[in-house]
Amino acid sequence: MKCSSGWRLVVALGVILALVSGCSLDPNVRRQNYFESGQRYFAKGQYREASIQFNNAIKIDPAFADAHLKLAETYLKLQQSTRARQEFGEVVRLRPGDHQTRITLANLLVAGHEFDQAEAQAKILLQQRPSDPAVHSLKAALLAGEGKIPEAIGETQRVIVLSPNSWESYLSLALLQTKAGDSDAAEASLKKVIELDPKSTEARVLLGNFYQSQERLNEAEHEFREAIAVSQQSIEAREALAKLLLAEGKIGSAEEILLQAKRDLPTDPQSALDLSNFYFITGDLNTAVAEYDELYRHRPNDLQIKKKYIQLLIQVKRYDEAHRLDEEILRSSPNDSEALLYRSQMQINEGHATDAVQTLQAVIRIAPDNSEAHYALGVAFDKQGNLVRAEAEWQEALRLNPNSLDAERSVAHAAMARGDMHALQIAAGQIIRLQPQAPDGYSLRALSKINLKQYDDAEEDVHKAINVAPQRGFGYVQLGNLRFAQKRFGEATEAYKNALSRDTASTDALRGLVNTYIAEKQVDEAIAAINTQIAKSPANSDFYHLLGSVLFRSKKDLNGAEVALEKSTVLDQRNLAAWIQLCEVKAAKGQFNQAINTDQQALKANPGRPGLYLLLGDLYESNSDWIDAEKAYRNAMAINPQDPVASGALARAMLHTDGNLDVALTLAQTARLGLPDSPFIFDTMGWIYYNKGAYPLALNSLQESLRLVEEKKLPNNPDIQYHLGMVYAKLKQPALAREHLEQVLKIDPTYRDASQIKQELVALKS
Predict the structure, then answer these.
(1) How many CA atoms are closer than 13 Å to the CA of 754, on its beta-carbon side?
(2) Residue 24 banded pLDDT, cuts 50, 70, 90
(3) pTM for the whole thing?
(4) 3-state SS class at 521
């Protein structure tokens, strides 16, 4: 009996284990477990973990449409819009009749500027649901995204016919009418929104913004106050009213609105942030930080408050505290994209651009569609002196977010740095599109037209810049630039002075005024103008740099220039241009060792700046220290391997350090691709060929170098003449060899290879 009872127990346990094992192996159960686990993570905001679980469910059942849908929503939360679009597309493939998901997919495609794919989805939806207002709203968004504003307005009006009581449609219509410049129609549509939904604070705020753009300030204030009355909980309405009052110069009234918002909305962290930002804008930085200190102390575990606090600490350069809080976030969540972005901002601000590049590349690996990360990576590359890669990142940021004003401005300034006025004009137009009531877009477009000698068109943009912001200096600076280009120097002077009266710290205005005085050969007046502005802005590093530049270039006062430039670098250790010019002044005084020491100081304050390494290499060359010159050029190339200037300089240095000639030739050829019109690159290539014994190739390169010098009207260069002379000697053309070698001694009797040249000349006579 005992034995049979024992066997029954064993059999029973075996059945139970089999059942348990069978359940755990059932794919339907496993996929559902993963799916439900993902939903729990999603509900807690743990989106990374949720994505893993939804993916696990899909691996078991690739046709699990609900898992694809939740994974798509998770990717949206993770700001991975490309992956989200892929998953929504998979849902539509699995469930072709799921029109709501198809609408979501199409709207995402519009947002990503993938208009052809969005059009394909819209056609299917219009066939399936020709009377669905949501489908026609999608079509309107698609047309608007393609820039077809009149057609988008027509489609939105169809939505209104299909759903006449939808205030959201009238709101969309108003925004489109505003884009089309039909202000009367936009105003009527906004009023219709309010009629249909009297409690719509959004419509009242938009109507107030509209009135403000029309300079109808009393009506704007009325709408903002009505919005507050309609919804006491609306922080947006209070923000809009405070901004209006601040723009009118009513600082006390604006402060009271924000203080009242904080009293009325104590649990909304945005109210404290707005008040803090107000103090920051008005220059009261201590109060700004104190406001947020208080909020953070009361809610230290609120992640969003902590993140906003970090942003504010970065703004006021309290990096130690910002670092500490940011690292707290990253310890618990190492892949938090926002916290990594804050880390990169601090790295950039503290002069560690190379570290910032690594941080931001990690962010992009985690979230490849994060436009802010691409923009910041562009800034980091720019700080490294790699404008090509910087601009590529800014363009990617714009592809992901076409409304990124920061990225558009950076693209504009990159075009300006390249001297590409056509590209600048396009970027300026986009800035105007994004911010039509701001002066900088019109100002930049005017600058492009001035440089393209389109003076009549430039005049129009100049006056637009002045009209939209008469109290600011942007427009007046460009008016000065326009009059300078037209050689109307008296009017240029007046325009620059007008700009400085509005912005005493405007470097562009002061530089324009100084250039005008110098063009009229009034150097003392230029120096006096700079000193006048320094008295008004004594901590302005750029002003001292400008003073040093004028004393150096125009006055030839090397000692005075040195004092001014040293002051500039003390005021701002990141003023790279001032450091570089200070080194040039010391070199001009023959103080090459001091210049080298100054460059090394600049590198300590600005680590990883290739321009400083290039200058350092050049200074070592002046001391005939080719080994250290080569090290400096290699450091520059380590930061930006594609820099043609660094490639050419390193190739040249290697000729003096017995470096590998094949490697040097490759470097020189790379430099030529980037600088096809540089006579010095061709000279370097020619001398490499000479050292390799390829004399005909050397002659071709050196002749091209000499041609470019003559074409560009550059000073006669002793290196090129020396190299040509030596090549002609090898090619058994003594007359030409003597001609070029004698030229070297005429240009510079103390040339570093003068003794060798004299020996060669003796040999050529024999």
Answers:
(1) 8
(2) low
(3) 0.68
(4) coil
